[in-house]
Amino acid sequence: MSDMGVGWLAAVIIGGIAGWIASGLMKSNTGVLMNIVLGIIGASVASFLFGILGVSFGGWLGYLVAGVVGACILIGIVRAVRK
Fold it and tell me: 59-82 and 8-25 helices cross at what angle (nearest 10)?
C-alpha cells in the first residue's frame, strides 16, 4: 500500500468506500467493518492482478478503483464457494 502513496488511515477510509460501492454493485449485505476489509484486501488483489496485465493505478482514485474491482472479485469468489 505504501508504494501507491496512500497511508493507512486513507487506506481504511478509501477501503470502506470501495467496499461499500462494491457491496452495492454486487447486491450483498455486508456491514461497515466487512466493507473496509473487502475494500482493502480487494485493492491488494486487484493491484496484483492489474500488475500482471501491466496496468497500474496510483493515488487515491486509483486505490478506490482497484478496491471496488477487487472487492467485487472477492464477493464473486465467496458466492461461488458458498454454492
Answer: 50
**Mind listing the pLDDT tens digit for each residue in 32-75?**
888 888 888 888 888 888 889 888 777 788 888 888 998 899 88
Helix runs in 1-83, H state only: 8-25, 32-53, 59-82
- Contact yes or no for 75/22 (Cβ under 8 A): yes
Cell numbers describing residue 6: 496512500
CB 35 within 8 A of CB 19: yes
Residues 6+ apart with CB under 8 A from 12: 36, 40
- Give the pLDDT band of residue 25 (cuts 50, 70, 90): very high
Question: Can you give the pTM of this predicted structure?
Answer: 0.80
Residue type, 19: G
Assigned C-alpha cell, 70: 477487487
